[in-house]
C-alpha cells in the first residue's frame, strides 16, 4: 500500500510519481491511499495515470482508495473514474 | 619545500611581464585552447621546469582532462578520474601541491609518466579556481635548477598565473553556455512557429467556428482545428496535452496531425476519437495523455454531434443566454486502447458552443482566485454583442490578462449566423 498526503500539485507530483513508480516496480498489487490528499492537479493526475499504465504493462493490480471528494471530483470530471479502480475504503482494496 | 631564497628584482620583473603577457593573451579573442597552450609554454619556461600540463575539470563527469602539455610526448586528451593523482589532490583540496620526491608520494599517478615518457621527480601543481568553482589545474614537473625542488616563489607565481588562467577559462565557458542557450532559444522559437502553422487560419463571418490559442510559454500543449467537410458540415476539435513544455508540445503536434489525417474519413466524432486513441496508445509515453473534444457541425441545420474525451465540459449557451455544461463521457485519449467514446447530439438553435482548455478557467483573477467557469460565463455574456472572432479574442485577452499559468485555448461554434450568407463548402 502507498499513502500519499498533502496537495499533489506541480511541486509535489515528481515526488509522488517517484513513490508510485517504485511501488509498482516491486511487482506486488498496489493500493494508493489518497485519504490525505484533498487537492490534486493535472500533473498529479498524470503521475497516477503513468503508474496505472506501468502497472497494467507489468500485470500488477493498481487501485486507488479513500479518495477525498474534491480529488474524486477532478478524476470524475476527466472520466478517469472509468480508468482507475477506486475503493471507498483502503481496507476494500487490500 | 626548502627555504626559498629571497627573490631578486629580476624575478619580480620577469613574473610581472609573464602575468601581463598572459592576461593580454586572454583578453584577445584568439581561441582559448591556443592561448592556454602558449601560456603554459611561457610558465614552464619562466619557472624553469622540464615539462608541464594544464587540466580542465569536465562538468558532467568531474574527470580531469589534459588540455595542453609541454614536454617530450604530449599527454593532451589524457583523462584522470576525480581525485586521481597529485593533480586530482590539488583540485580536490583546492590547495597548491609541492612535492619534492614523487616516488614517495601515495597519490602519484605513474600512468602519466608512462604516457609522457618522462620521469617525474619533483612536482608543483596549482588548482585553477574561479568564483568558488575549481575549473582545473596547472602542473609543472622537475625544476631544472638547483636541487630540483620548486621554490616558494615558484609556488606563489604559479598560483597567480593559475588564477588568471582560471578566470579566462570560466569566462570562455560562460560564453559557450550563452551561445548554447541562444541556440536552444532559437530552436524553441522555430518549434513554436511550426506549432502555430498547425492551427487553422481564421475565416470571417458568416463562417461559424472560430478559435484562439495563447501559449503560456513559447510552445503550447493545447491545439484546436477546424476542417470543412462535404455536405455543409465542419469538423472541429480542441485538445489539451497533459504536462507542459517541449514533450507536451511534441505530443500536441502529433495529435493535431493525427486529427487532420483521421477527421476527413471518420464517420463521426466518437469514431474519430476511438481511432485517435488507439493510434496514440500504440506509441504513447506513459503518463502523457490528451483531453479532447471533437465535433461536427451541420451548418445548415445548426445541428451538432460531439464526443468528449475527459475534457473540461464545454459550455452551450442558448440564444436566450442559458448555459449548460456538457460533461465528458469518456476518459482522455492515449491511456487505454479500445476505449469507446460515446457521442451526444445538440441543436444549437441560434446559440453558441464554447470549448476551452483549463488554462482559461484556471487563469488567475485580480484577487488571486482562479477564473473558473463562472468567470467564463460572465465574460461570454459581457462580450455577447461582438462578432464571433472579436468575442473569442476579447474573452481570451481578458482571461489571460493577469496571470496565465497554462496554455489558454478557446473555440466557439456558433449558430448565430445561420441563414446570414453562404454556407461554407
Key traits:
heterodimer, A: 94 residues, alpha/beta, Transcription Regulator spoIIAA, 4-stranded parallel beta sheet, 4 helices, 4 strands, 45% helix, B: 425 residues, alpha+beta, Beta-Lactamase, Phosphatase 2c, domain 1, 2 domains, 6-stranded antiparallel beta sheet, 5-stranded antiparallel beta sheet, 10 helices, 37% helix, elongated
What are the SSEs and their pairings?
The complex is a heterodimer of chains A (94) and B (425).
Chain A: E1 2-5, H1 13-25, E2 30-36, H2 42-57, E3 62-65, H3 69-77, E4 85-87, H4 90-93
Helix pairs in contact in A: 1-2
Chain B: H1 9-27, H2 32-47, E1 49-57, E2 64-70, E3 79-80, H3 85-93, E4 97-99, H4 110-116, E5 123-130, E6 133-143, H5 152-198, E7 209-214, E8 222-228, E9 233-241, H6 246-263, H7 269-282, E10 290-298, E11 303-309, E12 315-317, E13 323-325, E14 343-347, E15 352-356, H8 358-361, H9 372-382, H10 388-399, E16 408-414
Antiparallel strand pairs in B: 1-2, 1-6, 2-3, 4-5, 5-6, 7-16, 8-9, 9-10, 10-11, 11-14, 12-13, 12-15, 15-16
What does this structure look like?
The complex is a heterodimer of chains A (94) and B (425). Chain A is of the alpha/beta class and 94 residues long. Chain A has a single domain, classed as 2-Layer Sandwich (Transcription Regulator spoIIAA), CATH 3.30.750. In chain A, 45% of the residues lie in helices and 19% in strands. Chain A contains 4 helices and 4 strands. Chain A has helices at residues 13-25, 42-57, 69-77, 90-93; strands spanning 2-5, 30-36, 62-65, 85-87. In chain A, strand 1 (2-5), helix 1 (13-25) and strand 2 form a beta-alpha-beta unit. The longest helix of chain A has 16 residues, at 42-57. Chain A is globular, with a radius of gyration of 12 Å. The termini of chain A are close together. Chain B has 425 residues and is an alpha+beta fold. Chain B has 2 domains: 9-178, GAF domain (Beta-Lactamase); 199-414, PPM-type phosphatase domain (Phosphatase 2c, domain 1, 4-Layer Sandwich). Chain B is 37% helix and 24% strand. Chain B has a 6-stranded antiparallel β-sheet with strand order 3-2-1-6-5-4, sandwiched between helices. A 5-stranded antiparallel β-sheet of chain B has the order 7-16-15-12-13. In chain B, helix 1 (9-27) packs antiparallel against helix 2 and helix 6 (246-263) packs across helix 7 (269-282). The radius of gyration of chain B is 35 Å and the shape is elongated. The N and C termini of chain B lie far apart (92 Å). The mean pLDDT of chain B is 88. The chains are: A alpha/beta (94), B alpha+beta (425). Chain A binds chain B through residues 17, 42-43, 45-47, 49-54, 57, 77-80, 82-83, and chain B through 242-243, 284, 286-289, 291, 309-313, 327-332, 335-336, 358.
